[in-house]
Amino acid sequence: PAPDCPACGEHVQSILKPPSPGLEITPFGGQGLQIVPHPRRELDLAQLAERLGEDAELSRDGFVLHVQTPTSRPLIVFADGRMVVRGIDDEDAVRELYRRTIPGVG
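and the corresponding structure tokens:
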């Protein structure tokens, strides 16, 4: 075991627990925030794009949906439920944006 590993060397077992249900928000490349839902869920990006419809400029690249609406910052939505919002550091605003974009989560 590595002595500097919190779980192995310091016997801090709490880091081995799965995250609490809800939305985890982490910095993303110094340019925005990433939202990760717990538990993760698969999104139907085609259905999401259809729901966002006329209000957004959309482009899809495999397992990623790029979204630009007139009222929000650029979004990147992944098929595993993650979302990246660029140019923002307000966690409450990002949570609300996630909930509006992907209803039924968090």
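(Above: one complete record from the training split.) The chain has a mean pLDDT of 84.
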